[in-house]
Amino acid sequence: ATKKLLVLPGDGIGPEVMNEVARVVAWMADARGVAFEISEELVGGASLAVHGVPIRDEVIAAARAADAVLFGSVGDPKWASAGFDLRPEIAILKLRQELGLFANLRPAKVFDALVEASTLKPEVVAGLDIMIVRESVGGIYFGTPRGIETLPDGSRRGINTEIYTTSEIERVARVAFDLARQRGNRVCSVEKCNVMESGLLWREVVTALHAREYADVELSHMLADNCAMQLVRNPRQFDVIVTGNLFGDLLSDLASMLTGSLGMLPSATLGAVDDAGRRPALYEPIHGSAPDIAGKGIANPLAQILSFAMLLRYSFAMEADAALIEQAVANVLASGLRTADIMSPGMAQVGTSVMGEAVVRELDKL
Amino acid sequence: ATKKLLVLPGDGIGPEVMNEVARVVAWMADARGVAFEISEELVGGASLAVHGVPIRDEVIAAARAADAVLFGSVGDPKWASAGFDLRPEIAILKLRQELGLFANLRPAKVFDALVEASTLKPEVVAGLDIMIVRESVGGIYFGTPRGIETLPDGSRRGINTEIYTTSEIERVARVAFDLARQRGNRVCSVEKCNVMESGLLWREVVTALHAREYADVELSHMLADNCAMQLVRNPRQFDVIVTGNLFGDLLSDLASMLTGSLGMLPSATLGAVDDAGRRPALYEPIHGSAPDIAGKGIANPLAQILSFAMLLRYSFAMEADAALIEQAVANVLASGLRTADIMSPGMAQVGTSVMGEAVVRELDKL
Ligand SMILES: CC(C)[C@H](C(=O)O)[C@@H](O)C(=O)O
Ligand SMILES: CC(C)[C@H](C(=O)O)[C@@H](O)C(=O)O
């Protein structure tokens, strides 16, 4: 069966870094005989500019039909005042919700060659390897009632609703427990059960599921404010963290910044396996569209390339090929090449396309 | 007029560190002729054990009648399964809400003598001095509907509601702008307006208030996930941060951990000035009840002592006395005394009461 990929470069540096993935895809076809059928669509500000909406229904349908979606990034200051329903971000939120992509896997990993890039002391972050599993189609992101209403006296009121159900909590916790079994076998579940009933239910459901099906995995619970502190104090205490949509948004960004190299971090967002054995999935770098450096040819393409490696691993079970790409990236770093965002004294600074070419050259050697 | 203080030591290390404040209060009476009328009550687990509730109505009334409340900390694993309505934490939540303590001021300051205590590199945090102003009686902490409901199929659903009104946003933003004018004159307002309408209203209201009354202060806006990252990447970019209850909970804990010395950080929570010119206020250390080290005489009393200094400054406009206490604390640190939590090689490790005595001895010298 051909492997159908939908590529959505998006805004800012998205298209630039996606270009470098194209080289790796071409290499896969040439050297390994693995062919992908690739189609490409506009999303975010790029779609707004042409179609007047951040994502068209046709694109959602194409994402559904594809075996996997490779996403760049969305967000563009040009559209800052486009209105709440026309934000470029709608593109990613709609894809998550329409495809039921409920488990956002966000690794925070420190690459040995880049341990100095962190603002944290090397002895605190060396070897760091955390996986944050963030619920991504529920919680306060999507709960209703929501909106802004005007009160009789002319003042206004903004409302959002956090909702979590037993089954929403269970399915994302399962992903976390399953991942933990392939890693350090430890899960830390994070909420604010001392203040929020949705967090209390979260803790109860995770605890019960653990006792029922995952007693072999070590489970701990932590309040979200304490987790924010512990990630700074001693991040290596964590293996897998599982949490809701909003806490996951903050905590995973915090965790990835501990590595000092956002430009290196990929992510996956997975849905449920359907009756035909298919699982919707989207892969994207953790970094955003970085409008300030867009179009300059200096963005780091490695997170986007590593997102493609994650895609091979999770959507096509091509573990060997994924590992090959990851090894090539490690070798390029070891050889001293750096884009501006991860540059340090004594290294060789290169632009986006030189970095992409270097990865392919390393792949040739492996 | 006598100055009426309500002292609420609470749980864990609360009573131990509060003992050391008593020395400072005694010194104030002796050396400066400033007398306080002090009453003390149980809260948290300590109140649960005796009265069966985390805080009695009489204690709320006493807090209302006092000129200021000095709070220790609440939280005790013994009461972990006491039920949602009997958590020790109810004590602080109820005090905030019943007294209308809407502005939680949480400084994150790196003491020169302790710059090495941070897990962040000294060059990133030296001189750090951020003030986080967190809204503390609204948002998802108190919004309704809330609770856990059982659905017809036996599964459950947890719900919480985030609500912010124009006036709730304006009054806390005013506190932030006013503070900024006495500091670096910069306010960064933080929400998730790209996902939540309550955040969108927050941004609009802060922007309008700024234009109307505070155009001399520099205002910027930041998404909460980005703020979590920026606090790790370059915390010194901030002067005053203003944000909602839930984001403030995580971000202020994160910010205080950047200093590496939670045991040093005080906080204030202020209400509105009433017609008689009185302003309800509560002061507490940022650290929690630390049950693991309670009763051992090793807790750091400095955050509690500095909370008392904040109390003098904000509730009684006793700036000189507040500064005196802060100077005494700085001198004690400079002399090399350290409690276990801030110990480093070459320093002299002491317990809670030796540290408290040392502050008073320094006060004598000033
Ligand atoms: C773009 C934005 C809506 C999104 C989110 O808040 O989920 C982003 O921050 C992320 O974490 O993927
Ligand atoms: C004890 C708890 C309810 C409280 C909160 O979440 O507000 C604490 O974390 C704080 O920040 O003061």
Automatic annotation (TrEMBL), chains A, B:
Alphabetical keyword list: Amino-acid biosynthesis, Branched-chain amino acid biosynthesis, Cytoplasm, Leucine biosynthesis, Magnesium, Manganese, Metal-binding, NAD, Oxidoreductase
Broad class of where this protein is predominantly found: cytoplasm
Give the EC number.
1.1.1.85
SUPFAM superfamilies membership: Isocitrate/Isopropylmalate dehydrogenase-like
**Where on the tree of life does the source sit, at the highest rank?**
Bacteria
**Compartment annotation:** Cytoplasm
Residue ranges crossing the lipid bilayer per the database entry: none
Domain Isopropylmalate dehydrogenase-like intervals: 4-359
Residues annotated as binding Mg(2+) are 225, 249, 253
Cofactor(s) recorded for this entry are: Mn(2+); Mg(2+)
Ranges in a coiled coil: none
Q: In which pathway does it act?
A: Amino-acid biosynthesis; L-leucine biosynthesis; L-leucine from 3-methyl-2-oxobutanoate: step 3/4
Q: Does the keyword NAD apply?
A: yes
Site residues, Important for catalysis: 141, 192
Matching PROSITE patterns, A to Z? IDH_IMDH
Q: How is the cofactor bound?
A: Binds 1 Mg(2+) or Mn(2+) ion per subunit.
Positions that bind substrate? 96, 106, 134, 225
Q: Which reaction does it catalyse?
A: (2R,3S)-3-isopropylmalate + NAD(+) = 4-methyl-2-oxopentanoate + CO2 + NADH
Q: Where, by residue number, does NAD(+) bind?
A: 288-300
Task: Please explain the role this protein plays, according to its UniProt record.
Answer: Catalyzes the oxidation of 3-carboxy-2-hydroxy-4-methylpentanoate (3-isopropylmalate) to 3-carboxy-4-methyl-2-oxopentanoate. The product decarboxylates to 4-methyl-2 oxopentanoate.
The protein's matches in PANTHER family, at most eight in alphabetical order, are given as: 3-ISOPROPYLMALATE DEHYDROGENASE
Q: Which NCBIfam families does this UniProt record tie to the protein?
A: leuB (TIGR00169)
State whether it acts alone or in a complex, and with which partners, per the record: Homodimer.
> Which family is annotated?
Belongs to the isocitrate and isopropylmalate dehydrogenases family. LeuB type 1 subfamily.
> What name does UniProt use for this protein?
3-isopropylmalate dehydrogenase
Organism source for this protein? Gluconacetobacter sacchari DSM 12717
Q: What is the lineage of its organism?
A: Bacteria, Pseudomonadati, Pseudomonadota, Alphaproteobacteria, Acetobacterales
